[in-house]
Amino acid sequence: MLFAIKTIAKEHVSAVPVIDEFGRLVGNFSASDLKGLYTEQWPSFRLRVDEYLAKHSPNATKPIVVYHDTKLKDVVKELVESRVHRVW
Question: How many CB atoms lie within 10 A of CB 86?
Fold first, then answer.
């Protein structure tokens, strides 16, 4: 998980996609997924990103995907209906 945090900081981005060993998008990791992480939960930093998200931020394991030919109006509709602020 620390690699994901370092990548966000290094690349100056607000989130990174979580990809499984087959190259499939399985999640979304951002700083907001760290909300509510208190000292007693610091051992969670040793978890893999997908394990951390499943335990602390399960909604982040349901990424919203759009494709290059998706119309902008449909992207905006998906953002509103899904109540998310990021699509991949």
Answer: 15
Instruction: For residue 84, give the 3-state DSSP assignment.
Output: coil
67 close to 56: Cβ distance less than 8 angstroms: no
* Contact criterion met (CB below 8 Å) for 54 and 61: yes
- State the pTM of this model: 0.74
Kindly tell me the burial class for residue 16, based on how many C-beta atoms sit within 10 Å of its own C-beta (0-12, 13-18, 19 or more).
middle
pLDDT (tens, 9 = 90+) of the chain, 88 residues, equals 788 888 999 999 989 999 999 999 999 998 888 777 777 777 888 888 899 889 888 888 888 888 999 999 999 998 899 888 888 8
